[in-house]
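Q: Got a minute? One more chain.
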Amino acid sequence: MPNSKGVPTPREVEKWNFNALNDWAGVVRAANTTFKEQIDKARNHFGDLGSVWSGAAHDAAYERVDEDYNQARKVFYEIDDMPGMLEQAGSGLTSFKQVVLDKIADAAALGLWVDDAWQIPDNSDVERSVIDDHQAAVRAAFQALLDEIARYKQTLVSNAELIRAAGDLFGSNINVDEAASQGGRLGGQDGRAVADAVRNHDDRALADIVDNMPNYVLTDQERQALANGQEVSTVPAGVQDYYREFYRSAGKDGVLALNDYLAAQEKTGNPVAAAQRDNLANGLMMVSNDKVVSRGPDGKIVAQGGYQNLPPDIRELVSGRAEEHIDPDATPFDVRDRFVDQARFADLLGEANPGYTPGKEFGIELGRQGASITNYLDQVDKNMHGYMPTGFQEGDRDLMERSAQQYLTAAGRNHDASHALLTGEGVTTDPSGGALGDRFHPQKYDPKEFANTIFNHEWGDDGKAAAGLYSWAGDLTHDQGPTGEKAREIAEVLPKYLAPVDSHSTLLGGDGKPITNGEGPSVFQNSAESFAKNPELATGLAKVLAPNLDAFAGYHAQTGIENNQLQLGREDARRLLFLSCMSDPGTMYLETSRQAYDAAVLDRIAQGQDPKPFDTALMLANVDAHVSLAERNAAIYKDAAEVDGRNTHEQELYDTRQKGWDFAKSLVSGGIEEATNKVPGGAIVQSIIGDMADKGMDKAIEAWDPEPTPGKMQFPSAEAIQNDGYNSFESALVEATKDNPLPQDKFDQYRRDYSGAYNDVVPNVLVTDANDLEKLVTGGVGAPRSKEDK
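A: Always. Here it is, folded:
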C-alpha cells in the first residue's frame, strides 16, 4: 500500500514489474498484425471480383473500398508505433528501478533501513552525515524513476489518444489524418456519455468511460514549475481539449457522480479506481490553470487552461458563497444540498496528486469558498450554540468542516492564489463568467475578513490547511524573482492580521479600535488563543520566520520591505515569534535556525572574517534573546492556560534546545565553509535551513514530540536569564575558537558587546511574574511594555 501521502513505498517499488510492458507490446503487435491481414484480405477479395463484375458500378465501389483500405492502413501505422514505445518503456523503467534498488542495497550494507516515507532513520553505528548521503542518493534515484514513469506515460497516453481518435474517425468515415485535432470531440463525447449514464444509473457505462479517459501525468519538474507560477507548455493541445470538453459536457452532476462511483469502487478494493479518481482530480487542476499552455509551431497559443474552462455549474458551486446567496425560493433543504455538493467536490479535489496546482483564479475562489463555509459554521456556533439549522443531518457539520479544510488546502497549492488571498491583490469580485446568475450578490473581497475567519477558527486539522497559505513563503523570501516578491509581501502582511496596531503602536481590538478605547480583547490576544488551539498555525508561521532571522536581527522600527529584503519591526517580530512558539515543532524550527545561525557566525569569527565585530555581536545577541525569550514566554503562557493539560515549560525548553542543537549540527556539517563567506542574517540561515527539506529535517522536527514532565510553573528572574545568555555565548565562543584563539582583548570585547545587547532585551520582553503574563496576553508581548516607556 502507498504511504500516508499516497507515495509508493520501497516495498511496493520492489514488486513493480515493468517487463509486463514487453508482454503488452507483444499482444498489441499480434493484434495489429491480424488487423492488417484482415484489411488486406478484404481489399484483395474485392479486387478479385473484377473477373466477374465490371463497369461503372464496380469502379465506384472499388474506389470506396480502396479509400477505406487507405484509411485503415493509417490506423494500422498509428498502432504500429505503440509496441516499440511499450518495449522502450519496459526496458528503460526496469533500469531506473534497478538503480533505486541498488541505492537501497548500498544503505542496507551499512545496516541502514529505508522506511515507507523514503527516509533513513538514525543508526548509532553510522554517522548522520553518511546517513544523509545515502538518503539523498535513494531519494534522487526514486524521484528519477517517478519522472521517467511520468515521461513514458505522457508519450503513451498521447499516442493512445491518437490511436483512439484515428479509429473513431475511421469508423465515422472521416479522414484519419484529422486524428491529432480530435481531443475535444472525444472529450465531449465521453462527457455526454457520463451525463447519460448518471441519468440512467448505468454504472457499467461509467466503468467503460473512465477506462477510455487519458491519464496524463505531469513530471516533477512540471509540477514544481506550476507551483512556482511558471508556464508549462508540454501538455499537448489534444489532451487539454479532451479534459476541457469532458468536464463541460459531463457538468457538475456528472463529475460528482463519477467521483462518487469511483470512491465506492475504491472502497470495495478496486485497485484501478483510486488512480482513476486521481486522474479526474488532476485533470480539473490542469484544465483550470492558465499556466498550462500549448503552443503551435509558430509559438502562438493553441490551448490554455483557465477557470472559465470549468463548466458553469461547477463555477457556480465554487464561487457562490452562502453569505452572498439571495435566492428567495431556497428552502433549508436546498441550503443543505448545496453544502453537500460542495463537500462532494472538495472530496474530489482532495484526490489530486501532490504538485497538481489549480489556476490562480480557481485557487482564489477555492480559498474564498473555504472561508465562507468556515464563517457559516462559526455563525452557527455563535448564534445557535453549535446546533445545525433545520434541514441538516447528523454528520453534516463534520462534512462541512472537512470540505473547508480541503478547499483551503487546494488554494494553498497555488502561491499566486495564496498571495492574492492574503494581500487582496488581483482578487476579482465575480470571476464566474456569469455562472452565478441572479441568485448571488458578490461582495468586494476583504482580505482582513478572510484572515480573521481562517486564523480564529478552531480547526479539526489543528490549522494545517489554513497555515498552508503562508507556510511556503519562508523558503522563498530571499529569492529575487516574482515568487520571492510575493513571499516577502505575505510575510510583511501577517502582523496586520495577527497583531494589528494603530499609528501609535497600540494594539487594536476586533472592532478595529485601540484596546484602550474599544471593547473586548485585542486581535493579538485572540491570535495567541487561536494559535495555542491550532498548533499547525504556529508551525507554519515558524517556517516563515526560521529562514528570516535577519529580518529582526537589527532594530527596525516598522515592518516593511527595503531593497528586496524583508524587515520586521521590533514589536511585530516579538509578537510573531511568540505566536510561532505556540507549537513544539514551531519552537524547534526557530531553535534549530537560531543555533545554526549562531554556529555559522561564530565559525566566521574564528576564521577572522568579521569586519564589524560590534555589529555582529549586536545582531547575534538580538536574535538569541528574541528567539529564546519568545520560546520561554510561550511556554509560560501555555503552562498558565494549561494547553493540552500540561505544565512543563522548563524541562521542555531544555529538551528543545538540546534537540535543536542536534538538528543544527546536522544542518551545519559540511556547510560552514560556504556560510563563513556570507554576512550575518538570512544569507547564512538561508544556505543552511534550505537543506532542511532535502535532508528530511523538516519531517524530523515535526515528528519530534517532547515527553511532558509535569511540575509547578515558576517565573524566571531577569538576572538569571541574562546570566544564562552571557554564559551560553561565552561557552560557544570558546568552543568555536579553541583551535584558533582570539586575542584576549577582542574576546572580551565580543563578550561585553553581546552581553550589553542581550541584557537590554531581557527586561523589556521576559515574563517574570503574573502581572507581566497578564500584560503579555492582553496588551502586547513587551513584558511589561511600560518599562520601555518609563
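A: The first strand starts at residue 293 and ends at 295.
Q: Perfect, thanks.
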